[in-house]
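Kindly go through one protein, given below as sequence and tokens. The question is how this chain folds according to its tokens.

***
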Amino acid sequence: MNAPYAPVDVVVAGGGIGGLATAYALARAGHAVRVLERSPEFAEVGAGLQMAPNATRILKEWGLLPEVLDAGVTPRRLLFKDALDGTDLTHLDLDDAFETRFGAPYVVIHRGDLLDILARACVRAGVELVPDCAVLDAVPGADGAVVHSSLGEHAAGLVVVADGLRSRLRARFSDDEPICSGYVAYRGAFPVAELDRDLDAETAQNVVVHLGPGCHLVRYPLRRGEILNTVAVFRSPSYEPGAEDWGGPEELDAAFAGCDPAVRGSLKSLWRDRRWPMYDRRPISRWTDGRLVLTGDAAHPMLQYLAQGACQAIEDAYCLAAELGAQPDLAGALKSYEAERTVRTARVQDTARIWGDMWHVDGVGRLLRNELFRVRDPRDYTYVDWLYA
């Protein structure tokens, strides 16, 4: 039996982007924080990440935005195109006027780079990072909570549950299960120098989204333009019949077979030896259980159509630290955090589902969507003000 660890103010269960963001926010507010991560190292699996100004505004306040800008890319536009005929549908300029409106830029960055930035910030702030430490359970008490882990017990005044989509601790708050959308994502991030053609200016400077029937493809640059990030998503025809192995590479090619040649050619920039089935959960209204509190994907896993998963986790971190600093009563602070964040994130979760449905329509639905997109004024912020402001 391992000896118990020394008590701390806060234990964070999970060392992903949400967990490290929360740890940093709480440490810079003066709390002693320990982060437990089941993996041998603090690292992110995946490729690109879009950071909208609702998140970069917080990173700016935390003093981390210069590092993020140095590691990432500030695209010129969010550009939407029809995947079948290749025509432009609409765009959102991410220029000086956009940054002035929302108080921070739109940045695309490699997931691993953002996690490294947060990990270094945590170390500077005095956070104790404990890798290779699986959280087995967390038990709330009258004045704190105890985390049982593979390396021993951890007593804390507060335990933040940040262990992701398949959180084992979420069962204390809800008996729901992750919901599979029937869609699967393939990703790829390759050095531009390794691609078989030069990157066109449109792709090199923008986030480009190609919308198709039951499928879409996203491309944008990473690491100062040295890497091209590609994501292809499609509805698997073998998922609904209940096939055990669904969404394979042959389905990927078939899903995009009728698309514009530029879209089909982009499939060569994907890893074909791995894929990511797309899950979310329904919103829940209870995120607190005594001295336990949910955050990030453990609280509100969402489909990626609004590119808000990491952004909302950073918002959670900011809000939790603010509420803990605003009132001395810990229970009251947690309830205030719960009341604010459950409403906000539920709207994002629900809107992401609707947005995904709109991306993937066919027939008359596609024609109507395309017309609505084409007549939109590029300076109309109606659909993003609530999210980014």
Notes: Residues 330-359 form the longest helix (30 residues). The radius of gyration is 21 Å. The mean pLDDT is 95.
